[in-house]
Amino acid sequence: MVRQIIKTEMGTGNEDLKTEVGQLKQGIALLAQQQQTGRVKEAAGQLQEARDKYGEALDPYAQQIKALIGVPNPNTGANFTVTEAYETVSGVKADEAAALRQADQTTRRTSKRQASGGAQVTVSGEGAPLSDGELVTELKNLGFE
């Protein structure tokens, strides 16, 4: 009789636990499905963005892009986006960096030339003093108001 009471008591508790475990499993499965759906939507959005920007140029790099989107980008800490992966493997980033370096170098050279060249001052006649009008004109050419 005691065994039957213990079995009845334990059986009810066990069934409750089994029900709760089943509910937890269903909840976890639902969360996993929602997370997967979110990832798929995010990946589709990234792919569309990259297609809008680069079109079919992505196709030859599909395998490399696929490999990189699962790897953290050292610049951002997050995984590479499709666009970042394409730009990395296709050399777009390297080309942009080279163009920026060239533009910077050109700007620096131009600035140095302008700074060292100074404005040209014309003298009226060899060694002759400037008239007041010529002096005002030359000062304006030099940037004085």
What is the total domain count? 1
Structural class: mainly alpha
Number of strands: 0
Q: Looking at the structure, what is the overall shape?
A: elongated
Query: What's the gyration radius in Å?
Result: 37 Å
Distance between the termini: 114 Å
The number of helical segments is 5
Q: Which range does the strand content fall in?
A: under 5%
Largest sheet: none
What is the H/E order? HHHHH
List the quaternary state of the chains: single chain
Poorly predicted parts: none
User: What is the average of the pLDDT values?
Assistant: 81
Question: Fraction of residues in helices?
Answer: over 70%
Detailed description of the structure:
The chain has 145 residues and is mainly α. The chain has one domain. Helices cover 72% and strands 0% of the residues. It contains 5 helices and no strands. The chain has helices at 2-54, 62-68, 82-90, 92-117, 132-141. The radius of gyration is 37 Å and the shape is elongated. It starts with a helix and ends with a helix. The mean pLDDT is 81.
